[in-house]
Amino acid sequence: MSSHPKIAFAASTRLEKAAQILERLQQNYSHVPIEDADVVVALGGDGFMLRTLHGIIDRQLPVYGMNAGSLGFLMNEFHENDLVARIEQAEEVELHPLHMTATTVDGTVEKALAINEVSLLRQTYQAAKIRVLIDGKVRLDELICDGALVATPAGSSAYNLSVHGPIIPINADMLCLTPISAFRPRRWRGALLPHDAKITFEVLYPADRPVSATADNFEVRDVAQVEIEEVRDISLRLLFDAGHNLADRIIAEQFAD
Q1: Could you list the residue range(s) of the whole structural domain that residue 28 is in?
Q2: What is the CATH number of the domain that holds 60?
């Protein structure tokens, strides 16, 4: 990155605080359109960071987040001073998204990318019944559950953690496969898979037990089959203050109260 990066600022429209910060930063620092930028500064919480990354996924610009929301695991602490120096000294973390191909019961095919996770969830009071295949081989003939998810290392500390999945280091070439409220097999807690594994979920009895699939915030209803695999030729670049990078945070999270 050059010694004087051209900065494009972006702020969550859902947070008044973020809008106020945006106005001040644009007055205090040079601001350019995103197509001319070397780096994007995102103001908000983790949800806004994900939306920002999705919005620039074709450009693959580095993103430096500052927390102006309630959750900021992917964000740096908010400080207005010395922003250029912080960006120049920041440590870069590279992420690779998941690609979801979801086929609905009527044959419609929907595709989307997920930075955190792809999740399947039951749509009614009935538990979902899902067959799980890894690289074309059936590993669970019938998983009875509220749902299941596949998480990236970055996403392993998000929804995956909330449903008692493992946290994995950011630089681990692995994916998490985690059930959500599994009823059968009752003691199955999920699996750690190599990053190049292809995961297929086949929804059993989708007419009686409908299931939705979500890639981050993109939802597809009434799915019959969902295929998930990592995309290595897309890199998402996050910048973190020196000594407070994502790898350190993921390790620290495993020792949190």
Answers
A1: 7-96+234-253
A2: 3.40.50.10330
Closest CA to 203 of 124, 147, 160, 139: 147
pLDDT at position 140 over 80: yes
Q: Are residues 189 and 88 in the same domain?
A: no
Residue 46 appears among annotated catalytic residues: yes
pLDDT exceeds cutoff 70 at 88: yes
Please indicate whether residue 148 or residue 84 has the higher confidence score (pLDDT): 148
Q: Looking at the structure, tell me whether residues 132 and 216 fall in a common domain.
A: yes
The catalytic position among 38, 46, 248, 257 is 46
Q: Which residue has the tokens 């995309």?
A: 231
Cβ-contact 227, 131 below 8 angstroms = no
Are residues 147 and 244 both part of a single domain? no
Taking the model in full, what pTM does it have? 0.85
Tokens of 104: 């609905």
pLDDT-derived band at 13 (thresholds 50, 70, 90) equals confident
Q: Specify the 3-state DSSP secondary structure of 238.
A: strand
Residue 104 to residue 211: CA distance in whole angstroms: 10
Instruction: Please tell me whether residue 89 adopts helix, strand or coil conformation.
Output: helix
- What are the angstrom distances between the C-alpha of 109 and each of 40, 106, 120, 206, 226? 32, 9, 16, 16, 10
Looking at the fold, whether 143 and 133 belong to one and the same domain comes out as yes
